[in-house]
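Continuing the batch. This is chain 6 of the set; chains 1 through 5 are on the previous pages. Same settings as before, nothing changed between runs. Recording input and output for traceability.
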Amino acid sequence: MTDDRTPARPERAIKPANKRGAARLGAVQALYQMDVGGSMLADVLAEFEAFRLGSELDGEQYREADPAWFRDLVKGVVAEQRRLDPEIHRALVAGWPLKRIDTTLRAILRAGAYELMCMTIVPARVVISEYIDVARAFYEGDEPRMVNGVLDRIAHTHRAEEFGAAAQAGNAVAGQSEGNNDGPAGN
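Output for chain 6:
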């Protein structure tokens, strides 16, 4: 006897734990929509704030998002994209240009990089952890680890003081052993 039903894909935990987490998830979705659909910033902000943030998704009610955090993230990524993309590119493994990265993953990296570089109120380790969780909402493979690695490199460059002298020394050695002359050790 055969079962005609398609096996259900395991549900991933995409329910953010707090309002800022929900705002981060919404910001990534909005950035994706802008990138893929060519939507205008004002239109996407209005749509998400009116119909998506804190709304039901796939039959499940999601936590209300912090609308100010959402707006700041989306507007900031759009305004700073020319500054963010080279930073992300430098943090990627050689041979993986940002344009080659999946659109959703690119949105996650841009939002995370923006928050690390420009919204310094949240500790770097918390920001990285939050974006790993966002990546897990979309991916079951190695992508969350990639988000961790890229955002960690950006955090160590832009928020070195949060990681202490031992971490800074370790990064300098790692940068030299990988032939990376882009960072402070190469200057």
